[in-house]
Amino acid sequence: MPRVTADVKDIGLYINGEYGPAENEDIFEVTNPATQEIIARVSEATEEDVDRACRVARDAFENGPWGKMSVAERSAKLRKMADIILERKEEIARYDAMDVGKPYEATVGHEVARAANNIRFFADFAEKQGGETYPMGEEFINYTRYEPVGVAALITPWNVPFMLTTWKLGPCLAGGNTVVIKPAENTPLSVSLLGDIAKEAGVPDGVVNVVQGRGDIVGNALTTHPEVDLVSFTGSTATGKRILKSGADTLKKVSFELGGKAANIIFEDADLEKAVPESIKAAFMNSGQVCLAGSRILVQRSIFNQFLEKFKKAAQDLKVGDPQENGTDMGPLVSETHYNKVTSYLEIAEEEGATLICGGKRPELPQYLSDGYYLEPTIYVHENSKARICQEEIFGPVVTVIPFDTEEEALHIANDTDYGLNGVVWTENLQRAHRISHHVRAGTIWVNCWFVRDLRAPFGGFKKSGIGREGGHHSMEFFTEAKNICIALN
Ligand code: ADP
């Protein structure tokens, strides 16, 4: 039986500026994946609660002050939100460490700062953004306005709850929309704070609403709701397909960031001093629960053994442990269901004849973590890139190293996937870096680096990794309607 922590949190739905219970007062429990202790009791929204949140958001959009405010005034409130996020960074990072199991130290130092910047960046961006004019001689003039779309549903995943929600919320609010947010059901803690943060920053009631609960009920109620105009979703490809179907009847505008199976290609002229530690991060950060993970490492055969030896040593040096403790590199997997899914690939790998290099079992841990969903950093070698472990998104600390001989072969393997979110290339040859970057079919290519994000740059996937792009003006285009106004001058 799960134990209950001393300070179990009660989390309500945030609708119209207030936290409150679900209309039938149902709750669900959230556990800490490192210990299986119950850490929160969360109000579980019903379809009626979702309906109320959507109507409140609609009313705030149509009749409230948010859309009518000057851009400067709106942006000032968003910058205040960013300041409050930074003031509360320890609390936010503690919450993410508690329900996701992600290391506190990295979250407080990087992710929460990035979350604040997501809001601040789009506040600034909206203020600086211009429109277009299309002169038509002496007879007419055309110009463009970017107007809010209406009510947005932001549906976010459990791996990076707070940062990914703000990545959508910043441009959504900066564009003048109102919003209903639905975080993942196993990681509701940090996102629930956004109601409070918006209120303290002076965002009018009804503009930001947060509903909690399961995807197939609460998420589905949002994606079918007639008052919701657009859906920005990050999550699995399977759920993306479902949302596309459920949003069809009400013709919702969508932006999807879905799964990935990135190739991390290491050529013989790569600087291994940099390639090894970055490949470790790309494989095992957040226990590999990252859509951008470099989970297929393609290594040129001439340096294969040299790379593998260094990579294995670095993986074994990672400290797996309590996410709340400083110095922990890797925490547990997020839930029992997910642990079962990830570890099922250990059997698949064995059946497929992959060679296990290290990991593949639970690490030795202190007694209080013995119920946690832990898996050691796991490395396989496989020659066949068609194997399931090379094709399917495992979303855990399991990486496959695949040898190749020529550049052509590397490209073929890299593109032999349904996904196309990102790719990584390690080479000191400039021409090769460009050639490979042009030909890998993915939304982002990192050369001699990984996960370097400039918020102006487009972010999203080719193929089954997504629909649309977010980032800079791409986000603003998604969260606004472009209107052309044509005026006769005579
Ligand atoms: P995973 O399968 O790894 O849990 P999901 O893509 O299912 O990832 O989850 C991402 C987000 O999508 C979560 O907030 C989840 O609750 C939500 N979700 C899941 N199913 C649906 C659905 N049918 N409609 C809308 N949202 C959903």
How would you characterize the largest beta sheet? 7 strands, mixed
Query: What characteristic shape results from the CA principal axes?
Result: globular
Oligomer kind: single chain
Portion of residues in beta strands equals: 15-25%
CATH topology annotation of the largest domain: Aldehyde Dehydrogenase, Chain A, domain 1
**Count of discrete alpha- or pi-helical segments spanning 4 or more residues:** 15
The averaged pLDDT comes out at: 97
How far is it from the N-terminal to the C-terminal residue, by CA? Answer: 79 Å
Bound molecules: adenosine-5'-diphosphate
Spell out the CATH superfamily of the largest domain. Answer: Aldehyde Dehydrogenase, Chain A, domain 1
User: Uncertain runs with pLDDT below 50, 5 residues or more?
Assistant: none
**Counted beta strands:** 23
- The neighbouring-strand order within the major sheet is 15-16-17-14-13-19-20
Residue share in helix? 25-40%
Structural class: alpha/beta
Query: In angstroms, what is the radius of gyration?
Result: 23 Å
- What is the level 1 CATH name of the largest domain? Alpha Beta
Overview of this protein structure:
The chain has a seven-stranded mixed sheet, with helices on both faces. It is 38% helix and 22% strand. It has two domains: 277 residues, Aldehyde Dehydrogenase, Chain A, domain 1, CATH 3.40.605; 192 residues, Aldehyde Dehydrogenase, Chain A, domain 2 (3-Layer(aba) Sandwich), CATH 3.40.309.10. Strand 16, helix 12 and strand 17 form a beta-alpha-beta unit. It has 15 helices and 23 strands. The protein is of the alpha/beta class and 490 residues long. The site of adenosine-5'-diphosphate has 16 residues, from helix 7 and helix 8.
